[in-house]
């Protein structure tokens, strides 16, 4: 009788252990998408800044692509798509070497925003590039003041307060000195400080800045009939583009603004000659 009771207990224990193992396996292989995860405000802000509908006017500029195409029409041995990819890599590398150091430094030291803006203006010899940077920077400042500021100034953390104060002071100085020597409103340093004010991580702020430039270039290529929309999306989704962006950000991560410089001087020539084209569909 005692042996039968012991057997029943052992069988029951074995059954319970089996059920426990099955439950652990189910938990281990559970689909993560079934679990709701709360998204931070910074994720929402990042999606806003990456939206192609953000009214910065970026897609009105080809960043020299239209001029590049016009000056390479005689190179029939190279396909338009292959030629675009050459320009694409040069343009992203140029943006990273000339603008990223100012973005990174403005994010780290928002109180230097006006100085960085002035330094970037002085180090941009190409008039067309300067005009495009200022137009987009002022547009971003307008978006912050009219749409974003109310939703992203509720935090009491010190970096955010410093960023908001720096943006406010810069905006007031820009309005006060609109027709005199003063702030210009370049995109890169303003992007860095506004991302800080929206509590976006620095690495994400840099990545989306470069990616937005890539999106604008690809959009210009589609409108210039170099490639179709599906090819354009393949370029943006490619691993090579992701690696290029990460590589350029990593390369410029510790670069000081005074060390920034143009790695592809020919881009300034293409940009500068844009206004000399007989006909054009882009502002630059």
- Quick one: how many beta strands? 0
Q: Helical region count? A: 13
Biggest sheet: strands, sense, closure? Answer: none
Q: Please name the fourth-level CATH homologous superfamily of the largest domain.
A: Urease accessory protein UreF
The amount of helix comes to: 55-70%
At a glance:
This is Urease accessory protein UreF. The protein has 284 residues and is mainly α. The chain has two domains: 2-34; 41-276, Urease accessory protein UreF (Orthogonal Bundle).
Please tell me about this protein's structure.
It is a single chain. The protein has 284 residues and is mainly α. The protein folds into two domains: 33 residues; 236 residues, Urease accessory protein UreF (Orthogonal Bundle), CATH 1.10.4190. 65% of the residues lie in helices and 0% in strands. The protein is built from 13 helices and no strands. It is extended. The protein starts with a helix and ends in a 12-residue tail after the last helix. It holds the Pfam family UreF. GO terms for molecular function: nickel cation binding. It comes from Elaphomyces granulatus.
């Amino acid at each position: 009788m005692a042996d039968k009771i012991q057997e029943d207990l052992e069988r029951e224990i074995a059954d319970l252990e089996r059920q426990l193992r099955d439950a652990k396996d189910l938990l281990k292989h559970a689909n993560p998408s079934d679990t709701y995860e709360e998204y931070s405000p910074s994720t929402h802000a990042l999606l806003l800044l990456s939206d192609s509908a953000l009214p910065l006017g970026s897609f009105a500029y080809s960043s020299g692509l239209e001029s590049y195409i016009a000056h390479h029409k005689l190179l029939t041995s190279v396909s338009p798509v292959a030629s675009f990819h050459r320009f694409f890599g040069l343009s992203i590398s140029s943006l990273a070497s000339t603008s990223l150091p100012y973005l990174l430094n403005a994010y780290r030291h928002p109180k230097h925003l006006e100085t960085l803006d002035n330094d970037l203006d002085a180090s941009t010899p190409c008039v067309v590039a300067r005009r495009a940077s200022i137009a987009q920077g002022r547009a971003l400042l307008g978006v912050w003041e009219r749409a974003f500021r109310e939703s992203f100034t509720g935090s009491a953390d010190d970096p955010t307060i410093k960023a908001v104060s720096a943006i406010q002071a810069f905006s007031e100085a820009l309005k006060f000195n609109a027709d005199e020597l003063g702030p210009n409103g370049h995109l890169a340093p303003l992007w860095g400080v506004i991302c800080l004010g929206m509590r976006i991580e620095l690495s994400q702020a840099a990545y989306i800045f470069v990616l937005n430039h890539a999106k604008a270039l690809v959009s210009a290529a589609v409108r210039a009939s170099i490639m179709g929309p599906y090819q354009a999306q393949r370029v943006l989704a490619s691993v090579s583009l992701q690696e290029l962006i990460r590589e350029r950000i990593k390369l410029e991560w510790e670069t000081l603004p005074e060390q920034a410089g143009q790695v592809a001087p020919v881009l300034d020539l293409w940009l500068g000659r844009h206004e000399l084209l007989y006909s054009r569909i882009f502002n630059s």
